[in-house]
Amino acid sequence: MTPTRREFGSLAAAGIAATAIPSALFTTTATAAPTTAEDAPWGGPLAPDKPLAKAYDDAARALAEVDDNPVIRWQYRVWCRTGYRSPGNAGTGQPVDQLTDPATDFVSPKGFLYKNYVRPMPAGGVQFLDNAWYFGTDFIGLVIVRTPDGLIMLDALTTPEDMRTQFLDQAAAAGLDPGDIRYVFLGHHHGDHVGGANLIRDSYAPRAKFVMGQPDAAIIAASRAELRKHRDEYTEEEYRARLAPLPSRIDIEVEAYPGHTVGMKRIQIGRRTTAVAILAPGHTVGQMQVIVPVVHQGETHKLLVWSGNDNLDAAAQYAISADFVQGLAGQEGADVFLNTHAYQGAAYRHLRALKADPSAPNPLLMGRTGVQRHIEIFGHAHRALAQRVIDGTWKAM
Q1: Gap between the Cα atoms of 263 and 255, Å rounded
Q2: CA 329, CA 278: separation in Å to the nearest integer?
Q3: Selected residue with higher pLDDT from 58 and 41
Q4: Rounded distance, CA 146 to CA 392, Å?
Q5: How far apart are CA 298 and CA 295, in angstroms?
Q6: Considering just the CA atoms, what is the radius of gyration of the chain in Å?
Q7: Contact 324, 203 (CB under 8 A)
Q8: CB–CB of 373/63 below 8 Å?
Q9: Where are the extended beta strands (E) located within 220-321?
Q10: Cβ within 8 Å of residue 356, ≥6 positions away
Q11: Cα 148 to Cα 251: distance, rounded to the nearest angstrom
């Protein structure tokens, strides 16, 4: 059955259970960094799976093979087959093979080589839904959603300069006014997701509210306090440069439920718009995913924006978080999925295709069952990864 241009993922799925970036431009002829003797083993198989890990792997693979959505299948290919390993951490020392075609995917049979390939998104960003855009690079970006109550920004790029060149200088071409930003959701504390936040607050949208998971907000606050403590060790210019990428204030913190690591908060953007912020640790202790209402071709949808992946040594927690997000995604009717790291899921390829031809197939429009499977695969994969580490068949660090 051939997917329509409007939706992947629900075709055969009925009934399925629920740090700065290098400036070098991407080229398809770039080569992977060589593996050296100093590279510490990370991920990858040491021995065949034992029964429980194999059962989790089999469950993930079965869900991935329901249809041909490439973003959904990517979850299994990366997490279960490669363990997210790349040339600098190539499993048990085996070489990681070269990519067949980096323009379409960063997964090879023996690894995952995204770190060597970075290029800017097309000018003006990519409008992947009627009211949603992705700005940034193939590696990292931000999402803008235009609602009746103003703009929502999800993640904030790596540096103030990136925010200026990759979004602010291009916003007008997309018909967007940064002064209309009402809420900024920062998915986790890593510098490639928060570096441009202060520029938005200080120069464009001073009344915007900033939202973050409470554990990561505490890390940001501690980082700023530590920097102030050692201020006399820097020149004024150095101090300001170090302070600039650290968000100056988090207005709304999403806390864990008592006795749990996960939590949820509904955020009222305005009279007509509500977002759901989900504390779901894994990549960091305060990682947050967000569900926001969107519109496409005259129909209302729910977009789940995921902020980052990886962290094999937190696989067990990631499985718990995936189950929690899956349940909320089902409750809220999430039917579109995008990670702000566009290389994950090879989304960069599909974003570029949509920029060139808005009628191109859009695998981000997975349908409700597709989003459920996508998250469930992630959960099973991380149960498999955690069990492999317990079994000693894979090495985490």
Answers
A1: 6
A2: 10
A3: 58
A4: 48
A5: 6
A6: 20
A7: no
A8: yes
A9: 252-254, 263-270, 273-279, 288-296, 299-306
A10: none
A11: 22
User: CB within 8 A of 231, min separation 6: which ones?
Assistant: 239
pLDDT at 38 over 50: no
Q: How far is residue 258's CA from residue 262's CA, in Å, rounded to a whole number?
A: 9
The pLDDT score that the predictor gives to residue 25 is 25
Give the helix ranges, DSSP H, for 253-345: 315-332
In the chain, what is the greatest distance between 2 CA atoms, to the nearest angstrom? 66
CA-nearest of 4, 8, 15 to 69 is 8
From start to end of 14-110, where are the E strands?
107-108
Predicted pLDDT at 311: 80
Q: How many CB atoms lie within 10 A of CB 88?
A: 16
* Residues 133-152 pLDDT 10s: 999 999 999 999 999 999 99
Best CA proximity match to 92, nearest among 40, 33, 53: 40
Please report, rounded to a whole number, the percentage of residues in the chain having pLDDT higher than 70.
Answer: 83
CB 130 within 8 A of CB 296: yes
User: What is the CB-side half-sphere exposure of residue 156 using CA atoms within 13 A?
Assistant: 29
Q: Give the Cα-Cα-Cα angle 252, 254, 256 (nearest 5 degrees).
A: 155
- 311, 327, 279, 281: which is closest to 386 by C-alpha? 311
The predicted structure's pLDDT at residue 88:
53
Instruction: Look at residue 96 and give its three-state secondary structure.
Output: coil
188 neighbors 286 (Cβ within 8 angstroms): yes
Indicate the pLDDT class of residue 217, thresholds 50, 70 and 90.
very high
Tell me the average pLDDT of the chain. Answer: 86
> Token digits for 294?
């969107």
pLDDT at residue 29 in the model: 30
- At CA 291, angle to CA 124 and CA 268, rounded to 5? 100
Q: Return the sign of the alpha-carbon dihedral for residues 26, 27, 31, 32.
A: positive
